[in-house]
Amino acid sequence: MSTRYFGQRIKRNEDVRMLTGQALHVDDVNFTDMLHVAFYRSRDAHGYIKDIDVSAAQEREGVVAVYTAEDLGDYWQPGPLLVPPPPTIEGLIFHQRTQVPLAKDKVRFVGEPIVMVVAESRYIAEDAVGDIWVEVEALPAVIDIEQALNEDMPTIHDDLDSNMAAHVVQKKGNYEAAVQQADLVIKRKLKYDRGTAAAMENRGIVAQWDAKSQKLTVWDTTQAPIVIRNGLAAMLGLSEHQVRVIAPFIGGGFGPKIMMFYQEEVLLPWASMKLNRPLKWIEDRQENFFATTQERGQVHEAELALTNDGRILGLKHNFIHDGGAYIPYGLTIPLNSQANALGPYATPNYYSEFKVAFTNKPIVTPYRGAGRQHGVFVIERLLDLAAKQLDLSPIEIRRRNFIQPEAFPYNHEIIFQDFAPLVFDSGNYEPALDMAIEMIGYEQFIKEEQPRLRAEGKKVGIGVAAYVEGTGIGPYEGARITVEASGKVSVASGIGTQGQGHFTSFAQIVADQLGVDVRNVYLVTGDTDQFHWGAGTFASRGAVVAGNAIHSAAVEVRKKILKLASEKLEAAEEDLELADGQVRVKGVPETAIKLGSLAVMANPLRGAVRPGTEPGLEATSYFGPESGTTASGVHALIVEVDPETMKVEVKKYVVVHDCGKVINPLILDGQIHGGVAQGLGNAFYEQLHFDENGQLLNASFMDYLLPTALDVPRMEIGHVETLSPLNPLGIKGAGEAGAIPAAPVFVQAVENALGDDAPEILEIPLSPNRLFELVFGE
Amino acid sequence: MNTLHTITVIINGQSYEREVEPRLLLSDFIRHEIGLTGTHVGCEHGVCGACTILFDDEPVRSCIMFAVQANGHTIMTIEGLTPDASEENLHPLQASFREAHGLQCGFCTGGFLMTLLPFLQENPNPSEQDIREAISGNICRCTGYQHIVDAVKIAAAKMEGQ
Amino acid sequence: MKPPPFEYFAPTTLDDALDYMADYGDEAKPLAGGQSLIPTMNFRLAQPEVLVDLNGLAELAYIRPAAGGGVSIGAMTRQRSVERSPLVAEQAPLIHETMPYIAHPQIRNRGTFGGNLAHTDPASELPAVATALNARFRAQSRSGQRWLTADEFFVDLFTTALEPEELLVEIVIPPLPAQTGYAFREISRRHGDYALVGVAATVTLDNNGRCEAARLVYLSVGDKPVEAVQATAALIGQKLTAEAIDDAAEIAAAQDIDPPGDIHASVTYRRHLAKVLAKQVLAKATARAKQE
After folding, report:
1. Minimal C-alpha gap between A651 and chain B (Å)
2. Could you say which of A293, A738, B79, C202 would form a disulfide bridge with A21 (CB–CB 3.0 to 4.6 Å)?
């Protein structure tokens, strides 16, 4: 196989449509008879609904329907549990409580939908929302994660004794014994607060029931169209073939768009069938701050036991995870936090216990990193503090604890979020560390630059942090590849796409196998009528799982091409090559058949298709990895803190990343850049501020601060390639890598910049205001 | 309160006459009345910049203007950058975004292009800092901006040669 | 986030606009650039019954020399035009220096000079700068016109002295006295954001190089522009040494202002920034005054 495209910085196939304003987004779908939806959402974080008066809304001109929970009848059901807890963890406690379409007796977070209004325009629908009166008997709101578990707190789910949603203990070896042998135990409490993914495109749904064809079509900003289709069909009593879910171009996902089923996702299709009209709901930015899921609230109490020479003997890692009002996504996030605290380090003894707390805040589901950054924050901070105490450099302490290259596959002996044991497939951490140190100029900075700048009164600091990222988990993805009569190749896959460049990276894989121009490979994804098997785009798995499925299907098609061409050209298969859209005899380029012609021959109008063969040059394949691949890397940065304002400027940022074989370095760099930007946002700009009543104080882009081009530094990226043995392409995922260690490494550098009297920084996010408080006292 | 106003607006060189309610946002008018959906809406409070258009040749946020205010004015949207949507006819600014991978999900891209077109006409040789300041009113959540900045540098070189 | 319905008028002459204001009084809101009003309506925090759109009033979009020196700016002049005006740069350099701090170019292309002042957002730059520069405000209604000082014009949070039927039509910025320096600085989270604290200063030196007059006006520390009168009083007659400036900055932060705390900045942090910024602007203004 030639690798003309694989590994190259290929320009993207999808760009022309996006750059000319021709890429279809959900809000671009319009029908002349379409109705528009708005929701009355709870103003209270916690309370009993006493009365709902929708009469004025119903009377408003232009209002077509107003629905409350009562109107839904049997259709009113709690949503599915998307990811059950791992069955193999002993003693695990899990209280499944999932969101309901419209709040019935009780409201559990500000923004929870109570009434659905359908009107001739969104403008009128919003007017009508203003007409609605809901009386709520307010209860004290459960906001603080730690207090949430106190016995005297009101319970959010009345049938439970407390707000504890889950309790999980995992261990490896014997931590207590390790402490006995330790020369040093570092013990700290660390906090991580909430943020939001804030994809530039808010969520949206268009549902169109066509009574004549008995078909429901749903355009949805989801990261998992197939699962949505199957679920909707079941809920609505339709055949799966009557439901088509299209996830067209999506303006950023980052995790929250994989949440299923959002209330609106359940309600719009139902109401469209009831009214026999197309319906549209486009979430506005204000709604997005309440109605779309969020993440990141955790409080950790962690201990690291070490020898005098800085070797880790054991880690104890207990934490509380903020689950929000409902936990449809199970334990994915805290399990990631639990696993990622082990980092790339050989940790012989581990004890980790976490509790999930229900709180009166929006629902929590994975957002880029999905709990991994919490684990990284914990271990990296503890290592920094240990290094300080042992008078080791932060580099050295990490080097001494890295899992060694010959130790892979490395079994951490705990269960990961995919229910499989946490086994790192492959890795080689020191070369990445060395490259990062070299690129950031660590030695020179420490020995020359920092002393010189400090002498000038400048507060400059450096940080270096390592991380691993479990990626590319199952269950599976699939693809169908067809050579068309035109010679173009179509690829249909089930995963949706939100900007990751799938139209290009997948085309590269196919183009190499079939010897066609990458621009002649046409990808269809996120349309259940085109392909209806698969899980979705999440957990940095698209390239690994769908990429390998596509590769496998391409290999099958290639076999068919060679077999048929061998007959037609009367040449042995091994003498044939695929190039320039043709099959030809090696060394005899005039003896060739165009792929398009071969595709026609494979689908004849006369003559039979022989038993045991199939028409066409087409194949469908699936790829289901037993367990995930483990990507890794090192981030390093230099910051300057303005001692007067406590503003922080990132002067230099280096990422060395190892995700195995790289399909398209241009796309990969973009993924990392974007991840780092979100990580820095998380570190220093973005924080959701809830008051004690559960009211969000900064539900706008004026007050929730997304980093701009002036806040994100130029980044330098280095690559190390340690192939994954778990898939034929040797690739690992990369989508979340940029975001995972950015906040921990930022904190380390800020602390370093503040010098000897720096406060210990044990929380994220920071802000100039918070840094000022930490340095000068509150 | 719902008195309709007849407005005439030139968008991308074409004149449109429509009846609008005063409260109709210009972004909604462009997208849903005219059908030019390349202009995207990200926040509807004038911060994210996704809905940026050229209004009488100056970049403005279309989500914080009323359509009725566009009566008698000239607008350009992302669709107006090229005579068609073909690869061959991409404007140098668009082609540079493609070359440098200056877009991922593409949702914010139209706003960036509309901000940058007049910027590059006024600043043919911008520094990195100039570029970053120029785009600081446009939020991108995917790229971390680096490839956008690279794209602008490439575009500046291309457009200067024209 | 769609705005509530309203009645809309788009007069093309000031007289017509004043008629609408007179007819609709309290129900009407004048619509200038709309860069604050329309977002507020999109959030449905403002629900005016009537909007009188002033964007057709070409007669209110001008920048010209004021009689008696300084510059006269029509209320409907776009902020971007003020930013780019050589006359403003020459006659009111403090305003020229401040303009880029206001949001982003896309906002300044639409936002107007008068609209910003009449909105009286305590976090906005121009009210503080206009106060420091002793700007005068011309208000007009169908029954006539009147002139107001900055102190008179800015009344409270989002409140001016304008009567419901009145429009702000012109702002006159008097020339700086001889040997006067100026400076503006602010600290915001991101470029273009509302300032956590901002401050404008002017310093006039006498022939002996001592401070003859000074103004120090803050934004984002109160319900309207807040002048640090005790701080500047302490500077009068002084040589503006680093120590004198430090002392004044201390007084400004500790005594002259009573800043609010919010999610972006605590009271203590705001006071701290107020001191840091006062030092910077007073030093810069003094240096500029010496060059005069």
Report:
1. 13
2. B79
- Output the six-digit token pair for A717: 């990226």
Contact list in A for residue C192 (CB cut-off 8 A) is 708
Asked whether the beta carbons of A381 and A747 are under 8 A apart, the reply is: yes
> Does ipTM surpass 0.85 in this model?
yes
Fold adopted by C7-53? 3.30.43
pLDDT in tens, A361-389: 999 999 999 999 999 999 999 999 999 99
Which option is the CATH number for A15-22+474-623: 3.20.20.70, 3.30.365.10, 3.40.190.10, 3.40.50.620?
A: 3.30.365.10
Three-point CA angle A255, A261, A262, nearest 5°: 75
pLDDT tier for residue A260 given thresholds of 50, 70 and 90:
confident
SS (H, E, C) B52-83: EEEECCEEEEHHHCEHHHHCCCEEECHHHHCC
Contacts of C273 in chain A (CB under 8 A): 645
Rounded to 5°, angle at Cα A217 from A211 and A223: 160
Separation between Cα atoms, residue B25 and residue A503, nearest integer Å: 34
Residue spans of the domains in chain B: they are 5-81, 92-160
Q: State the average pLDDT over residues A12-28.
A: 97
Query: Nearest-CA residue of chain A relative to C268?
Result: A778
Contact between A157 and A75 (Cβ < 8 Å):
no
Q: C195 and chain A: CB distance < 8 Å anywhere? A: no
Question: Can you tell me the distance from the alpha carbon of B76 to that of A376, in angstroms, rounded to the nearest whole number?
Answer: 47
Domain ranges of chain C: 7-53, 58-173, 180-291
Q: Kindly state whether B90 is in contact with chain A, defined as any CB-CB distance less than 8 angstroms.
A: yes
Whether the Cβ atoms of residue A678 and residue A743 lie closer than 8 Å to each other:
no
List of chain B residues whose C-beta atoms are within 8 Å of the C-beta of residue C34: 64-66, 69
- Of C255, C253, C243, C258, residue with least CA distance to C278: C253
Q: Please name which of A268, A194, B58 lies closest in space to residue C106, comparing C-alpha atoms.
A: B58
User: In the Cβ-directed half-sphere of B21, how many Cα atoms lie within 13 Å?
Assistant: 14
For residue A287, what are its two tokens?
């709604």
Mention the CATH class of domain C58-173. Answer: alpha beta
Q: Is C104 on the interface with A (CB under 8 A)?
A: no
Q: Which residue of C has its CA nearest to A703?
A: C264
Best CA proximity match to C182, nearest among C70, C290, C286, C69:
C286
C-beta atoms of A703 and C2 within 8 A: no
B36: three-class secondary structure by DSSP: coil
Establish if A130 touches chain B: CB-CB under 8 angstroms. no
For domain A298-473+626-776, say whether CATH 3.30.365.10 is its number: yes
Fold assignment, B92-160: DNA polymerase; domain 1 (1.10.150)
- Report the distance separating Cα A318 and Cα A341, nearest Å: 11
pLDDT in tens, A431-467: 999 999 999 999 999 999 999 999 999 999 999 999 9
Is the distance from CB of A552 to CB of A621 less than 8 angstroms? yes
Residue C127, classed as helix, strand or coil, is helix
A670–chain B Cβ distance below 8 A for any pair: yes
Q: Which CATH number fits domain B5-81: 3.10.20.30, 3.30.70.20, 3.90.650.10, 3.30.360.10?
A: 3.10.20.30
- Whether residue A685 and residue C189 make contact (CB cut-off 8 A), yes or no, is yes
Q: What angle, rounded to 10 degrees, do the helices at A742-754 and A665-684 form?
A: 50
What top-level class would CATH report for the domain C180-291?
Answer: alpha beta
Contact flag C38-B133 (C-beta cutoff 8 Å): no
Picking from A743, A773, A742, A744, the residue whose alpha carbon sits closest to that of residue A759 is: A773
Can you give the pLDDT at residue A3? 61
B88 min Cα distance to partner chain C (Å): 30
